[in-house]
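SEQUENCE-TO-STRUCTURE ENTRY
===========================

Backbone structure tokens: a row of integers, each naming the local backbone shape at its residue.

Task: work out the structure tokens from the sequence, keeping to the layout shown below.
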Amino acid sequence: MIAIGCDHAGVEMKKEIIKALSEKGFEFKDMGTDGEPCDYPVIAEAVCGQILSGECEKGILICGTGIGMSIAANKFKGIRAALCSDSFSTKFTRLHNNSNVMCMGARTLGCGLGCELAEIFLTTGFEGGRHQRRIDLISAIEEKN
């Protein structure tokens, strides 16, 4: 199950991602919004909560630029959120960083590219190996702070 959420700027992209990827077998838990104005940190908290509780495996967050969502999501211990705007970075944030939340900007990407990037994010695995050591170092920083 994938937790997905957006602020009012990302509603159309969220709908397109759910439609396109549901057809490919992905299941989504929609954490809002459906168009009403909202504050993106509230949506980020809802999506991250689904991942941290184990209800969902990964998350997708969308706002105007994706920046606000990524800042908010990365405040949660255990969340590794990445701002995704191209296929290479999206693939490697999964391969090397084991990111569990992707953030995108609805005002900076089209819905078509957003759907492509979401599919890359959801279908790319973590390589582990030497990269796990780095994830462990990030977790140690979280524990200290």
